[in-house]
Amino acid sequence: MVQHPKKGSGRKTEPDPARVPDMRSNERIFAAIREALEGKDFSSTEDVDAFLQAKLAAGDFDQTTKTGTTPLEKAQDIMYDAWEANGQARIDLAFKALEVSGDCADAYVLLSHEAATSLSEAIRFLDDGVRAGERALGKKMFEEETGNFWGILETRPYMRARFDLAHLLYLDGKRDEAIAHMQDLLRLNPGDNQGVRYELAGCLLEVGRMEELQKLLDEYPEGCSAFWLYTRALMKFQLEGRTPEADACLVAAFEQNRFVPLYLTGKKRLPSHLPDYMGLGDNNEAVAYLADNARVWAGTEGALMWVRRIHATFRKKPAGKKARS
Q: Is residue 79 within 8 Å of residue 88, measured between CB atoms?
């Protein structure tokens, strides 16, 4: 079984299915709600709410609800069960889903994580998943719904397969191909519910495509995670060296997440296992960020010394007082 290393900020690591419910299975409820509302004519949002509350009270939207009528929909119902299952049962259900419909992209996603025994095999599963998703969605979907992809439930298995494929292609050294996949995912879904931009930013920085990185940072100016702020700071340092602007960017990154410099300066050691979840500014976010980006910092001449010097000053600030940025 090949382990997928953690990726950018969207869905970090695959949770241990024995401990953490898989959020992908919640899409079953969304599908059931959509089916319940289909063809209904409500006079107000209050009526819609009352209708749904009654359905919820009756247990119509529980985690075992099956809504599929077509082969692909039935296969997706099986995958909702697979996300909730444990161990070998997950793999068995994924293969069962593919027997029902070969266009079930989510089945390939699960198999890439849990049945593949090598990186190349995992990539093959995901490449098959992307092709399956393309067949399932059809050309019309890509022509008419670009810009709104994640908002359409049926697109999500395809989006998951393609993001995972991009991640593994990058690990396999096919960096330009991986970056192209990530850039197209953002074209399909600029709202970026998956957090593609965070991984893309790190990849662009690592390969030195600075103009594209600056454009990406400008397109999402509200970014406030470690992935965004530390990437911006390192980009400034690579382009300009130590300048007041680069220093200010690094201080702003420290203020967002105070744990990252502890790892970069060797005061803390990265754990052997990646966190299941993370929060903005917490230690798990620092670990997740550095799992992808530590090598870029280490490979940038003078960057770690820069962190040490700025961090030494930063630590001397009075508690609760923010540095200027």
A: no
CB contact set of 121 (below 8 Å; sequence gap of 6+): 2
Q: Domain ranges in the chain?
A: 1-221, 222-325
For every residue of 9-55, DSSP letters joined together read: SSS-S---TTTS--GGGGHHHHHHHHHHHTT---SSHHHHHHHHHHH
Show the tokens assigned to 90. Answer: 């997950």
Going 187 to 191 to 194 to 197, the CA torsion angle's sign is: positive
Residues found in the chain: 325
* Digit-coded pLDDT (tens) for 8-45: 333 333 334 333 445 565 666 556 555 555 666 667 77
How many whole angstroms separate alpha carbon 35 and alpha carbon 23? 20
Question: Crossing angle, helix 210-219 and helix 226-240, to 10 degrees?
Answer: 140
* Gyration radius of the chain over CA positions: 22
CATH of 1-221, one of 3.10.20, 1.25.40, 1.10.8, 3.20.20: 1.25.40
State the pTM of this model. Answer: 0.81
